[in-house]
Request: fold
Amino acid sequence: MITRHLHQIICQEKYLKKNKTGEYVDQLKFYKLLIESSNLNTKVESTCIKFIDVDKNGQFKEVSFTFTEEEMSKFTSEIKEVYQKIINLEFDNPGDMKDEWYADFPLPI
Reply:
């Protein structure tokens, strides 16, 4: 079980480093956006994900990210687009969703 879990962490770490995408990366972008938009007058230079499981050498894994202005601009546009859809009550029809993430949601009557 530990070996399988460690393998998942290593695969996830490699995926994050290679693709720089996914829910965790979006969460880091969102935190950066929140902090830089606050009244703290703080610039976030880099972010990181620290895994709570140790590798085979007993070390905690850490993956660091920096985001370009272009990446943050695209992310901000996506947030604005989703916000506008919510305000306009433009929701996807769950009956059309094939993604397993939606499998636990009941279909509308």
About this structure: Residues 2-11+19-93 form one domain. Residues 1-11 have pLDDT under 50 and may be disordered. The first helix runs from residue 2 to 19. The beta strands are 47-54, 60-65.
